[in-house]
């Protein structure tokens, strides 16, 4: 199996990285292991991950991997130097297996070595080593590598360029191969080589720009005999020319491979033992098969593999994807086998605990049976037991020594004494017991018959083999102090004690097995946490996932800003004709917009969607922490603008709202965390209900009919501005002076007002005739303008032309809004006459100073400037004067810099005001004329269609592609299978999200919860569990707008049902019933 790059692989992967990674910034660096690093590159809407395995491979990856908990010292140094720097070049060093990454136009460089032990080396522009992954000592043909030394490039393979391929170079290469073989022969080194290896491997070392696999392919393509010896080729001009053509064919193949931006890759695999042969359809699908074992990969299709019938070829569009699939598949198989081994070990421990308990119970049962048998044997042989007891007691009573008693019994056995025959030696007289060999009741008759036999026959039987009576007799200990029946009673009592112990052991064994299983499961979970999870493809986020978002119960997309910049971005890029703007007069409330149907922007928004959007705005504000139920309000898109009153400036995230605010009922402080599944295009046809963003028939019919705004119904409207950070409820003046006209458009929704226009201003005919030309000049900034500027720099700003020039005298601004506007600075008062007079008095000399000045003038009248400077230098007064001048100059420089910065901020603010005014003017014209805002480069306006592929509860037979976690008002999660209720609490949101995900994963392992056939919609499906395990808490916690929460596991809800306790809920009602005794009611967290 191929494990590391060849020189050709390095050349191809460097070529692909140079086209795919250059101009991206390095966002971060992570450790995957001691030798594997992960570089994350990013720019807007383009994120890529570069995996570097020191000494083995380097490629872009599409799979998510678990990073180390803390970075190593090497990664910390790399982060300090390279983080946020732009990658400017990727190249191969000569034809060696070294890749050079240049950052900031060569200011810093990283060298990746893929030979020997490998290395990752960071240098500066002068190739001075700053840090490296592995310190290399000086050795034969190897220069030392450590920080402070210079990284050498001159001795790298073909660093100065690849020499031309000529006949003389080929002859010299063949001669060196011959000399090397002769030297090895004289050294008596016997190296086993296949036919053709001598020439191919020798050329790979001498003609080092071509790897051996490429040489073999070129020779097979040109028909060159690989078994020819190097000496034969050197002496034969025809063979030499043929070999030269083969090498030129290999060079042409390398040039063809690197001629395009990406080159194809090929994986060569073998069938697993016992797997079915692959069909033609699976070979052409370019999808990796689970019944194949990957063996090799190359950027071209070698002829030798093409002719091999036992290998399967999988082709890919990119060599980077080929390498990623090859190594990721092998890595995934190792991780799966490691997890399987852990689970198998846990099962073995549990089975061992059960077997130990069963062994104990079986031992107690055997003791009971043996005691009953011994008691029965005593009762069946009472007379012989009594005789043996009397004989031994008589000998003891005579005062005979215990050893002599044993010898006497042994002698009587040899004389075939029947009483001595049943006594087993040695005696246990120190315990006042003897051991008798007693037969059981069914063997008594056989014993009597054997007694009547002749002694000779018995002796013969004893000499040849033991009798059957001796094999079945029991060794029974008899207490000499009590009668035979007393001994039998003792054995019966022991049987009763063993029976009681057996019952207790059975009861305790159940508890012990349960405790052992819990302990083993805890150890398994702990081990699985430390173990890396299986590889999962990286999911590309949709454009709306960077905001707070959810799909309402009516199918409308609701977006909310996470901060001021996102609020500004929502207004500038996504708030369009027909959309609804929702907000709450609370600190920290998010700006929320409801995306209307693109082909029917005048369609009314259902009240349930308005209420859910208001709940999102309220729950993201300070009302969540204070647990106060407040109400939100909504307006149409044409009522929101960035045009501030004349002389004032709106900071980022603040907007002017003109017209009437439509207040919603008070929102409940109940949010939810749920999952949505993205199904394939074929499965999307089953889910037709509430499909809003995909009706091509209606869209085509209304493209040529621009929708116009309704007639103006307000003569004078109240002008209000709202800020997301600091705003109070004030709408008392919004309805004053409003009049209605006779012809108005009827309302289809009781919560939808008549279309208002807060302006009586009329546009010039020329401007109305050219909205498209103005749109060509309009630029919608992707970046949010900087926050509001200091008030002292606003004195000289330009007056903003806008709608305020024609506002009526009744237009006012509420108190909450005046705090967000930047007022012009107050004028400074003129200097008073008193201060002028006091300054004149201060300039007049005091009494006696005039005469003193005359004396000084007469004394130093003959001094010139040079003499004065010399005297000042002598007495040290010049240093003080110079220091004062330097301080004055530094102060003047600082004041000049501050004045320049203030002027720059004023110019920037004036430019933003002009751009905002132009944007608002063109936007208003477009809304009135019904012209669509041009689509952004990310295609956000046309990407509403894929929302129909997001379902909360898949149907049987659906092909589930991805899972998306999100946070939304709980009322909008009625159709979600997996959902959990969130209320205000003290638990941090990160810990709560992790608890929810772990709870769902724990429920999936319970008996009866998982439906292997994926037919029961109320139970968990294997594909759902697989995707659920790939969700990471840190990736989805940003979508939760609240800080402190309390998790409520619902009893019958999908996914959160009935688990109870720390395990969480199951999927659906059946999952809730399987969750445990506490799962029915749910448990508060």
Key terms:
1085 residues; alpha+beta; five-stranded antiparallel beta sheet; 33 helices; extended; disordered C terminus
Task: Sum this structure up briefly.
This protein is of the alpha+beta class and 1085 residues long. 41% of the residues lie in helices and 15% in strands. The strands form eight sheets. The chain has a six-stranded antiparallel beta sheet, with helices on both faces. A five-stranded antiparallel beta sheet has the order 6-7-8-9-10, covered by helices on one side.
What can you tell me about this protein's structure?
The protein is an alpha+beta fold and 1085 residues long. Helix content is 41%, strand content 15%. The chain has a six-stranded antiparallel beta sheet with strand order 18-19-21-20-22-25, with helices on both faces. Strands 6-7-8-9-10 form a five-stranded antiparallel beta sheet, with helices on one face. Strands 26, 28, 29, 30 and 31 form a five-stranded antiparallel beta sheet that branches. The longest helix is centred in the first third of the chain and has 62 residues, at 319-380. The radius of gyration is 46 Å and the shape is extended. The two termini are 51 Å apart.
């Amino acid at each position: 199996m191929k494990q590391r790059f060849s020189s050709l692989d390095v050349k191809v992967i460097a070529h692909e990285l140079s086209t795919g990674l250059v101009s991206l910034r390095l966002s971060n660096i992570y450790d995957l292991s001691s030798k594997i690093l992960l570089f994350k590159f990013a720019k807007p809407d383009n994120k890529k991950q570069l995996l570097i395995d020191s000494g083995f491979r380097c490629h872009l990856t599409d799979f998510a991997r678990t990073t180390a908990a803390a970075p190593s010292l090497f990664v910390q140094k790399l982060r300090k130097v390279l983080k946020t720097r732009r990658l400017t070049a990727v190249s191969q060093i000569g034809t060696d297996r070294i890749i050079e990454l240049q950052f900031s136009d060569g200011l810093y460089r990283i060298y990746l070595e893929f030979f020997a032990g490998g290395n990752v080396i960071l240098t500066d522009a002068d190739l001075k080593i700053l840090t490296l992954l592995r310190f290399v000592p000086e050795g034969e043909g190897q220069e030392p590598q450590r920080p402070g030394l210079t990284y050498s490039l001159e001795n790298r393979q073909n660093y100065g360029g690849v020499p031309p391929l000529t006949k003389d170079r080929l002859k010299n290469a063949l001669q060196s191969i011959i000399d090397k073989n002769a030297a090895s022969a004289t050294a008596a080194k016997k190296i086993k080589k296949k036919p053709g290896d001598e020439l191919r491997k020798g050329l790979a070392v001498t003609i080092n720009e071509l790897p051996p696999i490429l040489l073999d392919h070129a020779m097979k393509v040109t028909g060159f005999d690989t078994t020819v010896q190097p000496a034969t080729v050197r002496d034969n001009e025809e063979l030499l020319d043929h070999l030269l053509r083969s090498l030129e064919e290999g060079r042409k193949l390398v040039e063809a491979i690197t001629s395009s931006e990406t080159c194809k890759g090929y994986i060569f695999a073998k069938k697993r033992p016992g797997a079915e042969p692959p069909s033609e359809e699976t070979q052409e699908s370019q999808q990796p098969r689970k019944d194949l074992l990957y063996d090799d990969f190359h950027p071209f299709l070698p002829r030798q593999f093409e002719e091999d019938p036992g290998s399967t070829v999988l082709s890919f569009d990119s060599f980077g994807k080929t390498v990623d699939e090859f190594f990721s598949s092998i890595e995934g198989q190792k991780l799966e086998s490691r997890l399987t081994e852990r689970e198998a070990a846990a099962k073995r421990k549990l089975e061992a605990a059960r077997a130990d308990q069963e062994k104990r119970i079986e031992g107690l049962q055997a003791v009971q049976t043996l005691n009953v048998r011994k008691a029965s044997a005593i009762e069946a042989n009472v007379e012989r037991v009594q005789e043996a007891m009397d004989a031994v007691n008589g000998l003891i009573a005579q005062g005979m020594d215990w050893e002599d008693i044993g010898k006497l019994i042994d002698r009587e056995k040899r004389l075939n004494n029947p009483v001595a025959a049943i006594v087993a030696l040695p005696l246990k007289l120190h315990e006042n017991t003897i051991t008798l060999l007693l037969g059981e009741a069914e063997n008594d008759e056989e014993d009597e018959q054997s007694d009547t036999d002749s002694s000779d026959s018995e002796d013969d039987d004893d000499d040849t083999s033991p009798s059957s009576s001796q094999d079945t007799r029991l060794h029974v200990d008899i207490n000499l102090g009590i009668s035979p029946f007393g001994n039998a009673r003792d054995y019966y009592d022991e049987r009763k004690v063993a029976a009681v112990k057996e019952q207790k052991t059975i009861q305790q064994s159940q508890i012990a097995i349960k405790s052992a299983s819990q302990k083993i499961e805890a150890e398994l979970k702990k081990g699985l946490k430390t173990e890396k999870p299986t590889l999962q493809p990286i999911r590309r986020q949709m454009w709306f996932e960077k905001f707070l978002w959810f799909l309402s119960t009516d199918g409308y997309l609701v977006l909310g800003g996470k901060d001021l910049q996102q609020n500004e971005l929502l207004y500038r890029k996504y708030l369009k004709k027909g959309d609804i703007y929702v907000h709450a007069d609370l600190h920290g409330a998010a700006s929320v917009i409801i995306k209307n149907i693109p082909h029917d922007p005048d369609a009314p928004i259902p009240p349930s969607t308005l209420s859910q959007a208001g709940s999102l705005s309220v729950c993201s504000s300070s009302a969540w922490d204070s647990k106060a139920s407040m109400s939100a309000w909504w307006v149409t898109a044409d009522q929101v603008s960035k045009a501030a009153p004349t002389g004032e400036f709106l900071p980022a995230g603040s907007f002017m709202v003109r017209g009437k605010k439509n207040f919603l009922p008070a929102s409940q402080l109940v949010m939810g965390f749920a999952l949505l599944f993205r199904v394939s295009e074929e499965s999307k046809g089953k889910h037709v209900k509430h499909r809003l963003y995909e009706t091509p028939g209606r869209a085509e019919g209304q493209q040529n009919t621009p929708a116009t705004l309704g007639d103006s119904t307000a003569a004078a409207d109240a002008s209000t501005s709202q800020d997301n950070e600091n705003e109070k409820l004030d709408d008392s003046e919004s309805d004053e002076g409003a009049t209605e006209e006779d012809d108005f458009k009827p309302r289809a929704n009781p919560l939808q007002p008549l279309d208002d226009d807060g302006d009586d201003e009329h546009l010039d005919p020329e401007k109305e005739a050219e909205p498209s030309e103005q749109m060509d000049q309009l630029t919608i900034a992707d970046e949010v303008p900087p926050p509001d500027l200091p008030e002292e720099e606003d004195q000289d700003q330009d007056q903003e032309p806008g709608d305020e020039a024609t506002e009526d005298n009744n237009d006012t601004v509420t108190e909450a809004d005046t705090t967000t506007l930047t007022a012009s600075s107050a004028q400074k008062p003129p200097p008073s006459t008193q201060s002028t007079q006091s300054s004149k008095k201060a300039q007049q000399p005091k009494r006696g100073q005039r005469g003193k000045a005359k004396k000084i003038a007469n004394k130093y009248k003959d001094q010139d400037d040079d003499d004065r400077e010399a005297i000042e230098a002598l007495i040290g007064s010049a240093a003080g004067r110079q220091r004062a001048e330097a301080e004055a100059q530094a102060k003047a420089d600082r004041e000049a810099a501050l004045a320049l910065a203030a002027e720059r901020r004023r110019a920037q603010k004036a430019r933003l005001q002009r751009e905002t005014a132009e944007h608002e003017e063109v936007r208003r014209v477009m809304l009135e004329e019904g012209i669509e805002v041009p689509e952004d480069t990310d295609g956000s306006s046309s990407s509403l269609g894929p929302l129909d592929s997001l379902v909360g509860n898949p149907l049987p037979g659906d092909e589930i592609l991805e899972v998306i976690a999100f946070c939304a008002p709980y009322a909008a999660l009625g159709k979600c299978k997996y959902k959990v209720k969130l209320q205000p609490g003290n638990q941090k949101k990160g810990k709560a999200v992790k608890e929810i995900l772990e709870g769902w994963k724990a429920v999936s392992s319970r008996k009866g919860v998982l439906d292997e056939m994926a037919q029961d919609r109320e139970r968990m499906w294997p594909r759902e569990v697989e995707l659920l395990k790939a969700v990471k808490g840190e990736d989805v916690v940003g979508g939760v707008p609240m800080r402190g929460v309390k998790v409520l596991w619902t009893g019958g809800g999908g996914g959160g049902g009935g688990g109870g306790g720390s395990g969480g809920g199951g999927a659906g009602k059946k999952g809730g019933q399987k969750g445990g005794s506490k799962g029915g009611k749910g448990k508060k967290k």
